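User:
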Amino acid sequence: MCGIVGVVGRVDAAPRLLEGLRRLEYRGYDSAGVATLVDGAIARRRAEGKLARLDEALAAEPLPGTTGIGHTRWATHGRPTERNAHPHATPRVAVVHNGIIENFSELRVGAAPNSTGQAAQP
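Assistant: Predicted structure:
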């Protein structure tokens, strides 16, 4: 079962996100990740396996930012890999979710930038 935690604060969010995810460990998971807003852009760290791997990734490459979101994932669709770990992100948006998004193809088309650089309108 997945777990989601968010932080809006005045100090770096990543340690608080990691602590929130630790409190959700009892739910079970196979990968985890966090994303924060840094100077108007999304930065993230993800890891396959237990939170200790995410903690190692954050120690090796700290993640600044005072606003963020974290997720623990139990794979119901797709392999439990770092690539499939949440948050999924673009430079401007990070997304986490529970369950399977059946209409992902339509959403991907609507989110893809058109020739003007703007998201296409569905």
